[in-house]
């Protein structure tokens, strides 16, 4: 369904038009958080409309969306599975397209400015990958100057680690500067204190729906169609001084677990069909369990923008990523690890070849040796207390339209 017009007064080129319809969890002064769908600068109380409209607006015998959407997270809706997601999207498209529904639906549209947005999913397991060749190469050069930048496994498997799901927060949540052990190579011993190299990582987060049983794997050719529900913008805040000292040999730990921010709106994969892109050539060819046809193993043409205290300092391009989301999910389950609705995996930092497309300040400032110049002339390498970072993104939609991915923002508070 790609009917471009709606009875709502909405310009055709609105980034939150009929072709987008992202899901989130909202409340209005004191009411219970529940699922909402964004259209234009409105939020539809989706469950309320599904309830009154069970017959009138035609959701009839399908999945009980009214019940699923009455919850304070998207998880019950995710658990209904990919066929229900399609039914829901077709139904929402009809509700907003056909003038006959206007009278029933309009009372359940709330201006965006009047809602509080909440974390959209109860995050089950959180995994973070490392899928950008440019990022991995840059970090390798900075952290391991005497080794090959890409480790020997990098082009054979999407490297990842399990993160801390309980500290994933919604856009707008302040982040307290973490304290921990810091030791630069030249320091004789570690010291304890607030991180002096607090950083960001601009990533996409993939929201997983449906579940598998222990021992089963998700086939790479079915991963996107059956289990990738949608996409959030994700900022994997990273304390580089803590990380550089602690990560050998088990990987990131306290340098990243203090907080990860995601956007309030989850863009359905169905809204990103026009944004699918070919992957860069994978050479060497990955093992068979990571191979699939182009309609299953694809990249995404998503344009990201990193704004630091009001200055846009970088514009990473997601289509530059080496590994496909379907390959990441297939790899994450190839050992028989099960998945659950509400699982979240990060793509890894999105960095391109050019300096102004790097997705972390570690890379942009080359570990503090090449500071970034802000529009007011000041220089920055890492985050200072009170700094604000906002990631934004958009993707091409049908017929020249744009799909807005919303934003994820956060401000740094001083260490406790
Ligand atoms: O190469 C390393 O030792 C560490 C790299 C990271 O910090 C990156 C990480 O979190 C994965 C990513 O965002 O690409
Ligand atoms: Ca990361
Ligand atoms: Mg983090």
TrEMBL record:
<keyword id="KW-0585">Phenylalanine catabolism</keyword>
<feature type="binding site">
    <location>
        <position position="130"/>
    </location>
    <ligand>
        <name>substrate</name>
    </ligand>
</feature>
<feature type="domain" description="Fumarylacetoacetase-like C-terminal">
    <location>
        <begin position="127"/>
        <end position="406"/>
    </location>
</feature>
<feature type="binding site">
    <location>
        <position position="260"/>
    </location>
    <ligand>
        <name>Mg(2+)</name>
    </ligand>
</feature>
<feature type="binding site">
    <location>
        <position position="128"/>
    </location>
    <ligand>
        <name>Ca(2+)</name>
    </ligand>
</feature>
<dbReference type="GO" id="GO:0006572">
    <property type="term" value="P:L-tyrosine catabolic process"/>
</dbReference>
<dbReference type="Pfam" id="PF09298">
    <property type="entry name" value="FAA_hydrolase_N"/>
</dbReference>
<feature type="binding site">
    <location>
        <position position="236"/>
    </location>
    <ligand>
        <name>Ca(2+)</name>
    </ligand>
</feature>
<dbReference type="GO" id="GO:0046872">
    <property type="term" value="F:metal ion binding"/>
</dbReference>
<feature type="binding site">
    <location>
        <position position="243"/>
    </location>
    <ligand>
        <name>substrate</name>
    </ligand>
</feature>
<feature type="binding site">
    <location>
        <position position="203"/>
    </location>
    <ligand>
        <name>Ca(2+)</name>
    </ligand>
</feature>
<keyword id="KW-0460">Magnesium</keyword>
<feature type="binding site">
    <location>
        <position position="236"/>
    </location>
    <ligand>
        <name>Mg(2+)</name>
    </ligand>
</feature>
<keyword id="KW-0828">Tyrosine catabolism</keyword>
<dbReference type="GO" id="GO:0004334">
    <property type="term" value="F:fumarylacetoacetase activity"/>
</dbReference>
<dbReference type="Pfam" id="PF01557">
    <property type="entry name" value="FAA_hydrolase"/>
</dbReference>
<dbReference type="InterPro" id="IPR036663">
    <property type="entry name" value="Fumarylacetoacetase_C_sf"/>
</dbReference>
<keyword id="KW-0479">Metal-binding</keyword>
<dbReference type="InterPro" id="IPR036462">
    <property type="entry name" value="Fumarylacetoacetase_N_sf"/>
</dbReference>
<feature type="domain" description="Fumarylacetoacetase N-terminal">
    <location>
        <begin position="19"/>
        <end position="120"/>
    </location>
</feature>
<dbReference type="GO" id="GO:1902000">
    <property type="term" value="P:homogentisate catabolic process"/>
</dbReference>
<keyword id="KW-0106">Calcium</keyword>
<feature type="active site" description="Proton acceptor">
    <location>
        <position position="135"/>
    </location>
</feature>
<feature type="binding site">
    <location>
        <position position="144"/>
    </location>
    <ligand>
        <name>substrate</name>
    </ligand>
</feature>
<feature type="binding site">
    <location>
        <position position="247"/>
    </location>
    <ligand>
        <name>substrate</name>
    </ligand>
</feature>
<comment type="pathway">
    <text>Amino-acid degradation; L-phenylalanine degradation; acetoacetate and fumarate from L-phenylalanine: step 6/6.</text>
</comment>
<protein>
    <recommendedName>
        <fullName>fumarylacetoacetase</fullName>
        <ecNumber>3.7.1.2</ecNumber>
    </recommendedName>
</protein>
<dbReference type="InterPro" id="IPR005959">
    <property type="entry name" value="Fumarylacetoacetase"/>
</dbReference>
<keyword id="KW-0378">Hydrolase</keyword>
<dbReference type="InterPro" id="IPR015377">
    <property type="entry name" value="Fumarylacetoacetase_N"/>
</dbReference>
<feature type="binding site">
    <location>
        <position position="201"/>
    </location>
    <ligand>
        <name>Ca(2+)</name>
    </ligand>
</feature>
<feature type="binding site">
    <location>
        <position position="349"/>
    </location>
    <ligand>
        <name>substrate</name>
    </ligand>
</feature>
<dbReference type="GO" id="GO:0006559">
    <property type="term" value="P:L-phenylalanine catabolic process"/>
</dbReference>
<feature type="binding site">
    <location>
        <position position="256"/>
    </location>
    <ligand>
        <name>Mg(2+)</name>
    </ligand>
</feature>
<dbReference type="InterPro" id="IPR011234">
    <property type="entry name" value="Fumarylacetoacetase-like_C"/>
</dbReference>
């Amino acid at each position: 369904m790609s009917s471009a017009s709606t009875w709502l007064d909405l310009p055709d080129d609105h980034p939150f038009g009929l072709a987008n319809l992202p899901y989130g969890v909202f409340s209005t002064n004191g009411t219970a958080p529940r699922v909402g769908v964004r259209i234009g600068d409105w939020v539809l109380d989706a469950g309320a409309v599904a309830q009154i409209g069970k017959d009138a607006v035609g959701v009839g015998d399908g999945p009980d969306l009214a019940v699923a959407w009455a919850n304070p997270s998207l998880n019950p809706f995710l658990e209904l599975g990919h066929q229900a997601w399609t039914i829901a999207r077709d139904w929402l498209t009809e509700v907003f397209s056909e003038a006959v529904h206007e009278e029933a639906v309009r009372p359940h549209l709330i201006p965006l400015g009047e809602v509080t947005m909440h974390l959209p999913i109860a995050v089950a397991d959180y995994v973070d990958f490392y899928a950008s060749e440019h990022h991995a190469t840059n970090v390798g050069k900075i952290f391991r100057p005497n080794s090959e930048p890409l480790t020997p496994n990098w082009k054979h498997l999407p490297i990842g680690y399990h993160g801390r799901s309980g500290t994933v927060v919604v856009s707008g949540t302040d982040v307290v500067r973490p304290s921990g052990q810091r030791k630069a190579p030249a320091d004789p011993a570690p010291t304890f204190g607030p991180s002096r190299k607090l950083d960001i990582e601009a990533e996409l987060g993939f929201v997983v729906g449906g579940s598998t049983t222990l021992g089963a794997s998700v086939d790479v050719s079915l991963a996107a169609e059956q289990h990738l529900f949608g996409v959030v913008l994700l900022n994997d805040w990273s304390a580089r001084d803590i990380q550089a000292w602690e990560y050998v040999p088990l990987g990131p730990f306290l340098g990243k677990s203090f907080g990860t921010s995601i956007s309030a709106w989850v863009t359905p994969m169905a809204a990103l069909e026009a944004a699918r892109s070919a992957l860069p050539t994978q050479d060497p060819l990955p093992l068979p369990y990571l191979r699939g046809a182009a309609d299953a193993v694809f990249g995404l043409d998503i344009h990201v923008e990193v704004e630091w205290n009001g200055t846009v300092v970088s514009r990473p391009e997601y289509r530059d990523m080496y590994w496909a989301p379907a390959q990441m999910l297939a790899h994450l389950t190839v050992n028989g690890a099960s998945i659950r609705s509400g699982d979240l995996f990060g793509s890894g930092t999105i960095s391109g070849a050019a300096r102004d497309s790097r997705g972390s300040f570690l890379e942009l400032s080359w570990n503090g040796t090449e500071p970034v110049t802000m529009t007011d002339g000041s220089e920055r390498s890492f985050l200072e207390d009170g700094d604000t970072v906002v990631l934004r993104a958009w993707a091409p939609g049908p017929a020249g339209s744009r799909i807005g991915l919303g934003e994820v923002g956060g401000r740094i508070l001083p260490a406790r």
